[in-house]
């Protein structure tokens, strides 16, 4: 059964478990572990519940252990500071008595009439000119590997339309400049709740970013000999946004070394406004034929 937007919204409505304590659940999508973007989004929701309605402007998180989709996630929030304009929170997610994720976030009261500038969005085809998720899943977007088709059709809560699908099917694999661009959006209208839109963007921001660190090596996270896992994640919210309209995720990877790939992303709305920035480092290890190690034990 596909994971729908209604499922995602329900999972972001955390249950209270005491003062500044919350419980979250995760679907089992066959990965054997919880998707990191969901943990980021749920931790953000937990901290937002304590921030006196101030919108989030940045978050920084670290993944420590893979999450177990069969067990609830306990989120504990620490109120670090409440100032005149900023509130700072820290959240640690636990399962089976061990921390699996820790994140800090800062919330900022709106300040209108401030200095304002932003970079321009890259010139790419509009989403309507690109294959849809249904096209990709059904094999109507070219000879893509089965793992690629399955990935873009599995999560029905969001739609992803890569600008360059050819990198997944090139034979032999082609090394390209370390960048890619993906249009993304929630698959149905959402309520006018800025905190919900921020949480869904946090979820989406982890879907494709680390893969950018493999582009210049002619590889992807779908290759069976690539072990990939997010290690940390940072997200800055610059301007109001809606995730139920198309957003352009322009990604690049300045560096990869020592089995660590670093990637950045700029998120633009349909009007070309920069609404968010993302950075992430992750494990991108090439498996040896005899290596049985998995990302879960990294």
TrEMBL record:
Keywords, comma-separated and alphabetical: Hydrolase, Lipid metabolism
CDD domains (alphabetical): Thioesterase_II_repeat1, Thioesterase_II_repeat2
GO biological process: acyl-CoA metabolic process; fatty acid catabolic process
Highest taxon in the source lineage: Bacteria
InterPro entries reported for this sequence: Acyl-CoA_hotdog (IPR042171), Acyl_CoA_thio (IPR003703), HotDog_dom_sf (IPR029069), TesB_ACOT8-like_N (IPR049449), TesB_C (IPR025652)
Keyword Hydrolase: yes
Catalytic activity: a fatty acyl-CoA + H2O = a fatty acid + CoA + H(+)
Occurrences of domain Acyl-CoA thioesterase-like N-terminal HotDog (ranges): 32-108
EC code: 3.1.2.20
Family per similarity comment: Belongs to the C/M/P thioester hydrolase family.
Name of this chain's protein: Acyl-CoA thioesterase 2
Organism in which the protein naturally occurs: Lichenibacterium ramalinae
High-level lineage: Bacteria, Pseudomonadati, Pseudomonadota, Alphaproteobacteria, Hyphomicrobiales
